[in-house]
Amino acid sequence: MGLLFSRRRAPARPVRRARLSLEFLEHREQPSDFFLPTTQDPNTPVYGVGEEGTFTDGEAPVIQNFTATSVGNGTYYLTGQVSSAQPGGLVVTFGGGITGMDGVTTTTDANGYFSVTVTIGAGELGTVTATTVDSQGQLSATVSRVVTSE
Q: What is the number of other CB atoms lying within 10 angstroms of the CB of residue 120?
């Protein structure tokens, strides 16, 4: 009885399988220290700051060259330099009301350079701010950049 009612099997179709692989991320998609000089000549003046191009005690620190570079997927690389009589070891604090950036801090290197990588929430749009305080308690002017998540 099994022979009368058996169905003919359809020819086997090739099974399509996903091929999994890893993709090399190019350098432009990676946070790096490309934007920060590794050394700076101490004799090079910081132009536009003070009468002789250098800071003296008693002057408030200044954040210069502040950038917020998008590296994709809502991730930003924040960089800059603090000019001060003693720029090393200062804490730079970020704010602006953006999820993922408010309250983030980083410390300057011996030459005043700083960098940090942060990720903001999906759909966020706003302004990231940066400030610092020197060893004498003098607050820098606030600097800012507009950011948006992709």
A: 25
Q: Which CATH class is domain 56-148?
A: mainly beta
- Which structure tokens are listed for 118? 């942060």
3-state secondary structure 38-92: CCCCCCCCCCCCCCCCCCCCCCCCEEEEEEEEEEECCEEEEEEEEECCCCCCCEE
CA distances from 106 to 15, 81, 87, 125, 126 (A): 53, 12, 13, 22, 20
Closest-CA residue to 65 (of 121, 108, 96)? 108
Each domain of the chain, given as residue ranges in start order, spans 56-148
64, 47 Cβ separation under 8 angstroms: no
Q: Which residues pair with 148 in a beta bridge?
A: 125
Q: Could you tell me which residues are beta bridge partners of residue 83?
A: 62
pLDDT per residue as tens digits for the range 66-83 = 998 888 888 889 999 999
pTM, whole model, 2 decimals?
0.62
